[in-house]
Amino acid sequence: MTSPISRYMRAQFTIVALAGLVLTGCASASPSTDASSVPPSAPPAQPVDGAAEFTTLEATYDARLGVYALDTGTGSEISWRDDERFAYASTIKAMAAAALLDTVGLAGLATPVPIEESDIVPYSPVTEPRVGGSMTLGEIAHAAMTVSDNTAANLMFEALDGPTALDVDLSNLGDDTTVVSRIEPDLNEAVPGDDRDTTTPRAFATNLNEYLFGEHLSGGEKAQLETWLTGTQTGDTLVRADLPTDWVVGDKSGSGGYGTRNDLALIRPPGRAPIIISVMSSKAEPDAESDDRLIAEAAAAAMVALDAAND
């Protein structure tokens, strides 16, 4: 049976390069709608080769592209430059919010934090008007996640005892790849060859999968993280742009120097297990413009590949 995303993509983009996908041993998807439930018997991940489509996208947009997508029901993977380093930019806010939940719990989100003039950095639409007052940690995390408020991100870092402490939190999660070094806005510098504030598509997607479906967060904390993801106002032109409108998508976007444009997302197609996807990109020039369409088309191509894997 042809799925909605396959029909949609074939009509809109005529994607044919994925017809020769390499696939072995994938099982049927197990529907899941509970943010706190992990598919109980997902088989080991199986790689699917979408190289032709991703190569074309890199050439079209003159960019380096990294993709890692995981079907949590079947264990099928889509991967392209998934172990190469990219500047994570504001997608780190999703990791900070998850680590904050792990550290303070739901009750701790009610903790008030004073907002001072000295805290404010560029692009702080929620926190800047609150100078002289206070916000709760929950309000701060909501601002960082849904509108990518940079001061809010720094206040989350501070609540976690700084970037180095978040780096340790991610290491405890099993991520020995990500290097958390600086706060906003410096973390967006993205100079090629500088490992500070970088990760890989696989590492960040694996982290998000662990926070949403692993053992580190309680059921209520997982639900809160997913609520922040689905409440984002910055991702309409990214992963969710070319997916069917009845698919629920929660994401955290990011952008930085050297054309960096990223999106880290949870996708819930109706009637099947959730999908975790990380799409990252960069360009050669410091002032290069990023391309949202590259992220959208790469995500849609990855979904077509997963459909092929599960047919």
Descriptive report:
With 311 residues, this protein is of the alpha+beta class. The chain is built from 9 helices and 10 strands. The strands form 3 sheets. The protein has a 6-stranded mixed beta sheet, with helices on both faces. The protein has a two-stranded antiparallel ribbon with strand order 4-7. It is globular.
The residue-averaged pLDDT reads: 88
Helix % is: 25-40%
- CATH A-level architecture: 3-Layer(aba) Sandwich
What's the gyration radius in Å? 19 Å
Strand content: 15-25%
List low-pLDDT spans.
6-48
At the first level of CATH, what is the class? Answer: Alpha Beta
The number of domains:
1
What topology emerges from the helices and strands here?
Elements: H1 4-12, E1 46-48, H2 51-61, E2 64-71, E3 76-80, E4 86-87, H3 92-108, E5 112-114, E6 134-136, H4 137-146, H5 150-159, H6 163-173, E7 198-199, H7 201-213, H8 219-230, E8 248-256, E9 260-268, E10 275-282, H9 292-310
Parallel strand pairs: 1-3
Antiparallel strand pairs: 2-3, 2-10, 4-7, 5-6, 8-9, 9-10
Helix pairs in contact: 2-9, 3-4, 3-5, 3-8, 4-5
Defining traits:
single chain, 311 residues, alpha+beta, Beta-lactamase, two-stranded antiparallel ribbon, 9 helices, 36% helix, globular
Short summary of the structure?
Keywords: Antibiotic resistance, Hydrolase, Signal. By secondary structure, the protein is of the alpha+beta class. 36% of the residues lie in helices and 17% in strands.
